[in-house]
Amino acid sequence: MIKKAMYAGTFDPFTKGHEGILKRALNLFDEVTILVAISPSKRPLFTTEERVEMIGDHFKNDKRVKVDSWGGLIVDYAKNNNIGAIVRGLRPTGDFESEFQMASMNNKLFPDIETVFLVTEGDNYYVSSSLVKEIFKHGTDVSDFVPDSILKRLQNKLGDTDEIK
Q: What domains are there in the chain, each with its CATH number?
């Protein structure tokens, strides 16, 4: 039986911190679905479709990585796709309490799901998509924080000033 997990988030943009968590998850699971969450309360820089496409392009040579989007509860996606684990990254910035609460609720809603917490690696512990977008919008180089393929997408967005402001 294939051990399948999902790694859910808004990924706006997908960072080297996300990539580090994903690579480590692939050491534990046979297949990981990166699930781009659709959140009506957020105003992302990239559309859902753009995020799915850019992450899919970045991992196009790794058949163990699937990319999809979902606007509902992630436990429902897990049930519908026979996924047994949710991977979550933890930074030393207060993530644990909210992540623990979410994992507990997910387990209550779908007792067969396990949440696996992976601590973010040292070089990426302070990186967040929000911070990357903020410094990017101010014209600062973000190449240390995002994979090259994602950096190209960010640079292409630079020409659309309505998206940047």
A: 4-164 (3.40.50.620)
